[in-house]
Each structure stands twice: as structure tokens, then as C-alpha cells.
């Protein structure tokens, strides 16, 4: 019986597997059980690996003879919170199909894309039951909270995982179902909260204004100082370790099918942010950033309350590129903020567990006279499979997001990763009305079917 990928995604969406919400722990565990039972029904050796938070599903299926390739497929079944619920046009945990899309939380991130991996393999193995291919699926439930349990899993299973040739993953973006991107890297990340503390309690601004340094004033002054007028980050040594960009990367990114005018229209902004002479296509993928993710303090309810607040806070994250160290950057930024903070205001930091190391692989196909290797064969097969399934050659680009697990896997096993983007900007990741294109589902499944066919020869 042919695998019904749409029904499979509908069932996955029905699980409220929000990893950051403890009230959803049972839903998350049930989703893992569903996946484990599914793989077992398809004659995989599948097991649930318990962690301190959410289970990991690890399913393996080996061929009878000597494998031509051994591939480890990664995905995550946890999802972002559904809020704000009022912005959804349908129940986020009940799949809705319209406009040739399937709507629901997790449809694009990552339940739809990893279904393409599963569908591609099942369709392939149905036609080639004696294929010389070993495959494993590693599906975690903590990606949206930076994969805290994966380090122990990788340590415990590193010997077994190291026997595979490479990792396959579809948790990155392509511009459309007509132009696929094979990602060569992801940015690293470090994030923290900064708390600015002034007087012991809120003060009457008429009685104390002008005599007390307002923590909000101090915070905004410090934050404003973290970027130069040219848009670059104003922290000494912030860019010291950034590697030069390869010419083939610049050539590939110029082919990316979106113009500045399209970007302005899509985002409904009047002008794009500028970083010195860095082009906007390169800024979002090849260069580091420092961003303010949230800010708060003082009176925030309707009306007016004339106070000098006791404290305020801001949330800061830095996206990092190849060769930048997260701990080093965090220390540089925090030390500089302390130097710039007024003496009468106390500045403290709360670091988050969401730090991630960068990952970058140079495709062997982009290196002249590169020796034959399993990785080179994988990239060659992927290139041909994208052309056959999507009708155009892929672009080879770094992704601007962060997937902490990729670098963790590489460090633990020395495995590189083929990252094929199967969601698009229209899919509303992490936002209301998240969706996954049924056209992408069909083409993405065919891509993986062709890839498995070619790599197993």
C-alpha cells in the first residue's frame, strides 16, 4: 500500500508537541510513541530513547548485503507554541487543507519536511526492496529549545552513529518550490537577557526626576551604542574571526531569486537595514549580527503613570558565522555593555541555553580535483536529483538560521550534513497560520526517492 504522506502529516499535527510548554509533555511523548510505532510497522528496528525532557526516536533499517551508502536522516517532531491563537484562521492542531497547502503548527517546521524523507525512502524501498542502502531516522523532541538532551545521546551513541556516511536534513528554507537551496552551513547563536537596576523601587518622577539615572535611559543608551551609524556591530574584535567569503558563494547568492523591491514588498517595510557595503542577500547568510529580541520595563498598561522605574530589561541575541566562538562573542558583548553602563545603574546578565555553534561544509563539487568520497557522491547525487524532481539546479548557500544539533553531530561523529531546504518564506514558520505546500510535499518526496535510488548504486 502506497504511503499516504498527507494523512501522516495530519496525524503528526494533531499532537500538541510544544517542547517549551510542560503542559504539553504528554502530547509530546505521545507523538514520539506514534513515530516509534510507525517505524516498527515498517520493519525498522525502532526504539524510544528517554531523556530528562522529551524522548528521541531512533529507527534503523539495514540492507541484507553490503551497503553502497549508509545515511542518517534527522528531523524534529517538537513545535513552537501556537500563540497568538487569535491570529490563526483555523485550529493550529487540526490540519486544514486549502489553497494547495496543509495548515497547522509544525506543518513546515518540521513535520512536513521530515515526512518527505520518510515518504521518499518508503517509495524507493517499495520499488527496490533489495537495495544496497542502510538508513536510520533520528527524530528528536527538543529542537525548538536548542536540543539540550542531544549531547548525551550523541555521546552514548557516537560509535554507532559514526558508522554512517552523512546526515540528511530538511529543516532549512528555499525561496520556492521552483528553486531549491542546498544549504552549506548555518549560523551559530548566543542569547542572553540584560537587566538594568536602579533604585530599590519605582520612584515619583516629579520628586526624583533629574536626580536619579533612569534605568530605561541607561539601557537605551547602552543598546544604541552597540551598532555604528554604518550598521555594523560596535564591539571591538566582534568581527576578528570571521572567515572570508568564497567567490563561489558570492556567485551562488547572486542567483537567489529575490530582489530588494520584492523583499520590501513582502515585509511591508520602506527600506532595508544596511551594514556598510554588505549586500542584503549576503547580510542574512554570510555575516554575523547583534539583535534586540525584546525589551521591557516601567509602566506598560494603558494611560500614564509618571515614574522612574526601578528596573528594566532587554533580550539580545547574536547570530554567528563560520569560525566565530559563541562564548567568546558573549563575553566581548557583555564586557563592553558593562563598560558603557552608567555607574549608578547595576547591569546583570542571564544567559540562555540557546547557544549554538556554527556549521559550514564546502561541497566537494565546488572544489577542483576533489578526491572521490562518500560525501562527494552524495552531493553529486543530490544535485542530479534536485534537477530531476524540481526542474532546476539547486543553489548552494549558507542559511541564516541556527540548528545547534548539526555542529553537535559533526563534533561527535565527524559526519557532514546535506541540508535541503523544503519550506519557503510563505510558510509562516513560528507564526500563526503555518503551512506546508502540497506541491513541495510531492516534489520533496520525489527528490528523496531519486536520491536514495542514485546513492545506492
How large is the share of residues in beta strands? 15-25%
Q: Roughly what is the average pLDDT, rounded to an integer?
A: 96
State the domain count: 2
- Helix proportion: 25-40%
Q: What's the total helix number?
A: 13
The CATH homology group name of the largest domain: Zn peptidases
CATH topology of the largest domain: Aminopeptidase
Distance between the termini: 25 Å
Question: What is the CATH architecture assignment of the largest domain?
Answer: 3-Layer(aba) Sandwich
Report low-confidence residues grouped into runs of 5 or more: none
Largest sheet: 9 strands, mixed
SSE-based structural type: alpha+beta
**Structural shape:** globular
CATH class categorisation of the largest domain? Alpha Beta
> Could you tell me the number of beta strands?
18
Radius of gyration: 24 Å
Structure in words:
The chain is an alpha+beta fold and 457 residues long. It folds into 2 domains: 5-186 and 358-455, Zn peptidases (Aminopeptidase); 188-242 and 288-351, Alpha-Beta Plaits, CATH 3.30.70.360. The protein is 33% helix and 21% strand. The chain has helices at 5-13, 25-41, 107-127, 150-161, 205-208, 215-224, 247-254, 260-267, 280-283, 326-340, 374-390, 404-413, 438-455; strands at residues 45-49, 56-61, 69-76, 96-98, 101-103, 133-140, 166-169, 181-186, 188-197, 203-204, 289-297, 307-308, 311-320, 346-351, 359-360, 395-399, 417-420, 435-437. Strands 1, 2, 3, 6, 7, 8, 15, 16 and 17 form a 9-stranded mixed β-sheet that branches. It has a 4-stranded antiparallel β-sheet with strand order 11-13-9-14. A 3-stranded antiparallel β-sheet has the order 4-5-18. Strand 4 and strand 5 form a beta hairpin. Helix 1 runs antiparallel to helix 3 (107-127), helix 3 crosses helix 13 and helix 11 (374-390) crosses helix 13 (438-455). The longest helix is centred in the N-terminal third of the chain and has 21 residues, at 107-127. The mean pLDDT is 96.
Amino acid at each position: 500500500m502506497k504511503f499516504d504522506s498527507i494523512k501522516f502529516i495530519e496525524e503528526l499535527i494533531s499532537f500538541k508537541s510544544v517542547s517549551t510548554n510542560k503542559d504539553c509533555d504528554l502530547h509530546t511523548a505521545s507523538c514520539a510513541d506514534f513515530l516509534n510505532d510507525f517505524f516498527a510497522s515498517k520493519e525498522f528496528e525502532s526504539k524510544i530513547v528517554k531523556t530528562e525532557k522529551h524522548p528521541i526516536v531512533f529507527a534503523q533499517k539495514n540492507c541484507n548485503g553490503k551497503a553502497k551508502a549508509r545515511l542518517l536522516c534527522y528531523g524534529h517532531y517538537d513545535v513552537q507554541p501556537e500563540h497568538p491563537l487569535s491570529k490563526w484562521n483555523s485550529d493550529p492542531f487540526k490540519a486544514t487543507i486549502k489553497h494547495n497547502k496543509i495548515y497547522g503548527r509544525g506543518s513546515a517546521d518540521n513535520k512536513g519536511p521530515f515526512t518527505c524523507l520518510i515518504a521518499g525512502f518508503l517509495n524507493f524501498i517499495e520499488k527496490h526492496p533489495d537495495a544496497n542502502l542502510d538508513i536510520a531516522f533520528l527524530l528528536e523532541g527538543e529542537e525548538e529549545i536548542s536540543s539540550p538532551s542531544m549531547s548525551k545521546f550523541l555521546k552514548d551513541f557516537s560509535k554507532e552513529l559514526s558508522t554512517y556516511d552523512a546526515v540528511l536534513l530538511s529543516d532549512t528554507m528555499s525561496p520556492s518550490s521552483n528553486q531549491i537551496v542546498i544549504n552549506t552551513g548555518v549560523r551559530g547563536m548566543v542569547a542572553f537577557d540584560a537587566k538594568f537596576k536602579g533604585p530599590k523601587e519605582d520612584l515619583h518622577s516629579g520628586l526624583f526626576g533629574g536626580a536619579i539615572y533612569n534605568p530605561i535611559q541607561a539601557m537605551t543608551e547602552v543598546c544604541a551604542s552597540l551598532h555604528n551609524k554604518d550598521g555594523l556591530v560596535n564591539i571591538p574584535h566582534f568581527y576578528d574571526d570571521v572567515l572570508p567569503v568564497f567567490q563561489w558563494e558570492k556567485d551562488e547568492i547572486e542567483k537567489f531569486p529575490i530582489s530588494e523591491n520584492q523583499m520590501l514588498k513582502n515585509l511591508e517595510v520602506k527600506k532595508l537595514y544596511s551594514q556598510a557595503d554588505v549586500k542584503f542577500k549576503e547580510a542574512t547568510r554570510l555575516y554575523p549580527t547583534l539583535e534586540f529580541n525584546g525589551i521591557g520595563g516601567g509602566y506598560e498598561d494603558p494611560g500614564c503613570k509618571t515614574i522612574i522605574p526601578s528596573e528594566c530589561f532587554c533580550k539580545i541575541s547574536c547570530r554567528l558565522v563560520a569560525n566565530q566562538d559563541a562564548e567568546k562573542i558573549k563575553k566581548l558583548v557583555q564586557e563592553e555593555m558593562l563598560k558603557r553602563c552608567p555607574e549608578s545603574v547595576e547591569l546583570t546578565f542571564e544567559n540562555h541555553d540557546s547557544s549554538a555553534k556554527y556549521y559550514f561544509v564546502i561541497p566537494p563539487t565546488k572544489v577542483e580535483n576533489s578526491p572521490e568520497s562518500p560525501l562527494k557522491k552524495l552531493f553529486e547525487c543530490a544535485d542530479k536529483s534536485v534537477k530531476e524532481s524540481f526542474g532546476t539546479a539547486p543553489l548552494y548557500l549558507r542559511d541564516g538560521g541556527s540548528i545547534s544539533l548539526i555542529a553537535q553531530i559533526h563534533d561527535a561523529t565527524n559526519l557532514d550534513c546535506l541540508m535541503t531546504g523544503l519550506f519557503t518564506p510563505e510558510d509562516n514558520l513560528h507564526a500563526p497560520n503555518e503551512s506546508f505546500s502540497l506541491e513541495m510535499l510531492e516534489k520533496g518526496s520525489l527528490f528523496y526517492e531519486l536520491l536514495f535510488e542514485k546513492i545506492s548504486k
